[in-house]
Amino acid sequence: MRFSALKILTEGLTGNKGWKPHWRDPEPKAEYDAIVIGGGGHGLSTAYYLAKNHGLRNVAVLEKGYIGGGNVGRNTTIVRANYFLPGNSEFYSHSLKLWEGLEEDLNYNVMHSQRGLINLFHSDGQRDAFARRGNAMINQGDDAILLDRDGVREILPYLDFDNARFPIYGGLYHPRGGTARHDAVAWGYARGADQRGVDLIQNCEVTGIDIENGQVTGVQTTRGAIRAKKVGLVVAGRSSQVAAMAGMRLPIESHVLQAFVTEGLKPVIDHVVSFGMGHFYISQSDKGGLVFGGDIDFYASYAQRGNLPMAEHVMEAGMALMPMIGKARVLRSWGGIMDMSPDGSPVIDATHIDGLFLNCGWCYGGFKAVPASGWCMAHLMATGTPHEHAAGFRLDRFETGRGLMDEEGTGAQHNLH
Amino acid sequence: MRIDCPCCGARDIREFTYKGDALALDRPDPDAGDAAWSDYVHNRDNPAGITRELWYHDMGCTAWLVVTRDTRSHEIAAVDLASAVKEGVA
Ligand SMILES: Cc1cc2nc3c(=O)[nH]c(=O)nc-3n(C[C@H](O)[C@H](O)[C@H](O)COP(=O)(O)OP(=O)(O)OC[C@H]3O[C@@H](n4cnc5c(N)ncnc54)[C@H](O)[C@@H]3O)c2cc1C
Ligand SMILES: [Zn+2]
User: Fold this and answer.
1) In this structure, what are the phi and psi dihedrals at residue A233, rounded to the nearest 5 degrees?
2) Which residues from chain B sit within 8 angstroms of residue A301, using beta carbons?
3) Nearest residue CA, atom 3 of ligand 1?
4) Residue A267: Cβ-neighbour burial (10 angstroms; 0-12, 13-18, 19+)
5) Are B42 and A251 a contacting pair, CB within 8 Å?
6) Mind spelling out the 3-state secondary structure of chain B?
7) Are strands A289-300 and A34-37 parallel, antiparallel or unpaired?
8) Which of A49, A71, A304, A407 to mutate to test ligand 1, by most ligand atoms within 8 A of the CB atom?
9) Cβ of A254 and B45 within 8 Å?
10) Distance B32 CA to ligand 1 centre (A)
C-alpha cells in the first residue's frame, strides 16, 4: 500500500474502508540471514537499510512487545545536528540529511518539521561555549547562527527578559533543527522494511543467544528457537540484559528520563527552545500540547516512571524562562529507560563474538539518530566493517581511553551525563 | 522516593546524591591488571531487579550509604552505613 493524494481523496469519499494493515504479522521462520533484536526506531531502521541498501531481505526483527512501545514512542521528538566533537558531528550531520529525505524515501508522513531550535545562554562563558559549538557545526556543513539578546527577543518575545537571576544573553539558533512525529517514524520504517520482505515479529522476547565456538548461531525466544549467523542487539534500555545472554557486561547503566505534555493550546511556541540555566526544553506538538522535559532522574531505573523532584525542577525551570506556560494544565507525564554510556556517546560495533553486533548507549538523544544509526548498523552487519560516519562509536574506547566522546566535558564516567 | 538513613531517619531523595553501583566497596587489587580495572571502572551488571548502590547524604549527616533497591519498582529494601558494610558488620 502506497500513500498518494489520490488514494487519500478516494478513501475519504468512500468511508475510509479500503485501508490495509501497514505490515504483515508473520510466524517466525526457523532461520534468517540476519536477526535484529528490538523493534524500536533503531532496530526498525537497521532492518530497513539491511534490505534497502544491502539487499538482505531474509531478515527478522524480534520485538518483545509491540512496534513503537519502547523509547521510540516515548521521546520528545527533537531532531537536530548540533554536536561538537568529531565522531559525533559527522554522524548526526548524516542523520539530519537522511531526515530531510525521509518522507519521500519511506513514502510516509513522519511530520518532520524543521521549525528551528534555540539553545539559550545566560553568561559570557556559556556564550563562548555556544559560539565554539556553532563554529564546529558550520565546519561540519550544518547551520548555526549566534543570536544576541535582541535577536532572541525578536523570535521568542514571550520569554522572561526581566529575569535578573538568569538573564538571557542570547541563543545558538539551529534553523534546520526541529521535531518529527515519533510513532510515524517507527511505523514508516516498519512498513518500509516489511515491504522489502523483512519479518516483523511482535510479542517475541529473546531469552537466550546461542553461540558455538565463538560464532553466534541463533537466538532462543518466547516463540521458539530461531537460527541466524548474524544477530544485531538493538534494545536500548535493555541492552545489559540481552548482552548478558551472550556473556557480556556492558558499560551501560539504565536510567529513567521523564517527559510532560499539557492540554492542547493554540500555537504559542513555534520553535524548540532550551533553557541554559536549568533542565528544561520545550516544543509544541501539532495537536497543540506543550511537550517538555528536562534531565534524567539520576538513579538506575527500569520503572518507566520517575519521581517528583525532577518533575518539580523541570516545572520551576520552565516557569523561570517563560512564565506564560504556568496557565497551561499538565495532562500527562511518563518515563522511558535510557541506555546511559560513560561518555554520553553511543556504541555501534562488532563484539568479540563472530556475527554478534551491538548498538546501544544512546542516552537521552537517540531519536534524532534513528536514520543514521540504522544506516550505519546495517552497513556494519552486512559488511563487517564500521561505516565511516560511525567509525568513532567503538566499544573499546572506554578501556583504551582512545576516542572518548564526552560532549559535556564532565568526564567519561557513569552518572555524569 | 525516601531513603531511611540510619543516622537521620527517613528523608526525601533531594537530600542525597547518587553515586551508582556499590561495587566501589570492592575495588580490584592495585595490580589486578588493566582488564580487571577497566571492567571495574566502566562495566556494570545494571540489573532490572535488586541492586546495591551508594548514596551520599550530603544534606544530612554526610554519611555514605549502601541502599538495596529494586530498579523495577524503586522500592527500598535496606539502607546500611557504607562504613559498616565495608567492615563487614552490616
Ligand atoms: C522522555 C524521553 C524523551 C526523549 N527525547 C528525545 C529527543 O527529544 N530527541 C532524541 O533524539 N532522543 C530523545 N530520547 C531518546 C530516544 O527516545 C532513545 O534514545 C531511542 O528511542 C532509543 O532507541 P530505540 O528507538 O531503538 O529504543 P526503543 O524504542 O526502546 O527500542 C528497543 C526495543 O527493544 C525491545 N526489547 C528489549 N528487550 C528485548 C528482548 N529481550 N527481546 C526482544 N525485544 C526486546 C523493547 O521492547 C523495545 O521496543 C528521549 C527518550 C525519552 C524516554
Ligand atoms: Zn543521614
Assistant:
1) -100, 105
2) 71, 74
3) A75
4) exposed
5) yes
6) CEEEECCCEEEEHHHCEEEEEHHHHHCCCCCCCHHHHHHHHHCECCCCCEEEEEEECCCCCCCEEEEEEECCCCCEEEEEEHHHHHCCCC
7) unpaired
8) A71
9) no
10) 36
Work out the average pLDDT over A289-312.
Answer: 96
How far is the C-alpha of B19 from the C-alpha of A415, rounded, in Å? 7
- Enumerate the residues of chain A whose CB falls inside 8 A of the CB of residue B20: 253, 300, 414-415
User: ipTM surpassing 0.90, yes or no?
Assistant: yes
Tens digit of pLDDT for each residue in A350-398?
999 999 999 999 999 999 999 999 999 999 999 999 999 999 999 999 9
**Pocket lined around ligand 1, Cβ cut-off 6 Å:** A 37-43, 62-65, 69-72, 74-78, 205-206, 234-238, 242, 257-259, 293, 336, 362, 364-368
Option in B41, B42, B53 nearest A300 (CB): B53
Let me know: does A98 contact A375? Beta carbons within 8 Å. Answer: yes
Residue B66 domain boundaries: 2-86
Structural domains in chain A, CATH included, are 5-14+21-76+182-251+343-400 (3.50.50.60), 114-175+253-340 (3.30.9.10)
Which residue out of B46, B53, B54, B59 would a mutagenesis test of the A interface target, given it has the greatest number of A Cβ atoms within 10 Å?
B46
Question: Which of A244, A241, A247, A209 is closest to A228 using CA atoms?
Answer: A209
Number of domains in chain B: 1
Instruction: Name the pTM for this structure.
Output: 0.97
At A118, which helix (H) or strand (E)?
strand A117-121
Tell me which ligand sits closest to the C-alpha of residue A70: 1
In tens, the pLDDT along A242-277 reads: 999 999 999 999 999 999 999 999 999 999 999 999
User: How would DSSP label each residue in A212-267?
Assistant: ETTEEEEEEETTEEEE-S-EEE--GGGHHHHHHTTT--BS-EEEEEEEEEEEE-SS
- In angstroms, the separation between the Cα of residue B42 and the nearest Cα of chain A is 5
pLDDT in tens, A97-133: 999 999 999 999 999 999 999 999 999 999 999 999 9
**Under an 8 A CB cutoff, do B48 and A298 touch?**
no
Q: Which residue of B has its CA nearest to A342?
A: B42
Contacts of A414 in chain B (CB under 8 A): 20, 42, 44
Average pLDDT, chain A: 97
First to last CA, chain A: 43
Estimate to the nearest angstrom the gap between the alpha carbon of A104 and the chain centroid: 20
CATH code of the domain containing B81: 3.30.2270.10
Of A238, A300, A342, the CB nearest to B71: A300
Q: Give the ligand 1 atom nearest the CA of A245.
A: 41
Which pLDDT score is estimated for A269? 98
